[in-house]
Amino acid sequence: MDRTDPACENGRDWVHDAVAKVEADANRSADTHLLVVPLPGEWGIDLYLKDESTHPTGSLKHRLARSLFLYALCNGWVREGRPVVEASSGSTAVSEAYFARMLGLPFVAVMPASTSREKIALIEFYGGGCHLVADPTQVVAESRRLAARTGGHFMDQFTYAAQATDWRGNNNIAESIYGQLARERHPVPSWIVVGAGTGGTSATIGRYVRYRRLRTRLCVVDPENSAFFDGWVNQDPDRTTTHGSRIEGIGRPRVEPSFLPDIVDRMMRVPDAASVAAIRILAERTGRRAGGSTGTNLWGTLRIVSEMRAAGIGGSVVSLLCDGGERYMNTYYDDGWLATQGIDIAPYEQALRDFFVTGMLA
Q1: Which of 8, 55, 201, 205 lies 20 to 30 angstroms, CA to CA, from 217?
Q2: Are 118 and 193 within one domain?
Q3: Are 147 and 154 in contact, with CB atoms under 8 Å apart?
Q4: Residue 243 clears pLDDT 90, i.e. is over it
Q5: pLDDT per position as a tens digit, 248-295
Q6: How far is the CA of 225 from the CAs of 26, 249, 322, 334, in angstroms?
Q7: One domain for residues 244 and 349
Q8: What is the DSSP letter of 285?
Q9: Contact status, residue 216 vs residue 82, Cβ threshold 8 Å
Q10: Which of helix, strand or coil describes residue 37?
Q11: Is the pTM above the cut of 0.90?
């Protein structure tokens, strides 16, 4: 017997056109900047933040969304006219809404009810819908139910982030970092510091470092109420928490499938107050406002710089500016919101100001 799937045959031209549109977006997009964070020259340490906020949709997740759409299109999962559903704390959904609109597809983001109003507005600006759930631990399960009910495709960034991106190169974020460092005085960084939301970014960087046989070590920073740190320390891939992260974009109530613990050299838990203090100080010293996940990255990065300075070790350290602070003016940059959350950033702000004088951060 022989049978041809009419849906596959009839939809092939649409898929070809869709892939071409997504690839054209990549071709139009310039690379993101590698910014220098000034440190005293006598320290012998260079600090860089890769500014992912300059992507068309304003965050690191633009790279991931593009890869996820290409992966799903080429796997035959995304088809003409069918909805795309994603579980997200915001930025991935913003970027996926952008690509769904490009392809003429309905898009629904399933998000915690605590997601910032600014992110919800951006998703809606790109034509997406927002399905808010009270319990952050249920966004994945609710996404699956919604996709099944509507006949759509659940994109599932948490499962496929580590699979959809080519970690060997092909203009991934790791290849971009090393290319931009090529003419710096320390072209191979001692450390790269990133947070974990899906785990995809740390998986891409960690694999690339090993593939290229580089001496860089990978540190993953994790906010409060996230399962990644305890799961890594206790070698427990089933570790869960009962609360969602207040640092949007990173931190998860479970260890996600895309998180690869064996390629992580170090993990660091960062208090939420330290994350917020770090973005406030970043704005104070550089004029750039960033989101909370950048603050988590920066606190961990500066602790590593402090340790290198104490040991008399020179080199470079790289982290990510994940998205812009304009998405969080009603949360991390609002003192009233911090008070309602019981977040006191004052001690951490002072510790950071002292760091830029002494080079020491406990």
Answers
A1: 55
A2: no
A3: yes
A4: no
A5: 989 999 999 999 999 999 999 999 999 999 999 999 999 999 999 999
A6: 35, 13, 20, 21
A7: yes
A8: H
A9: no
A10: strand
A11: yes
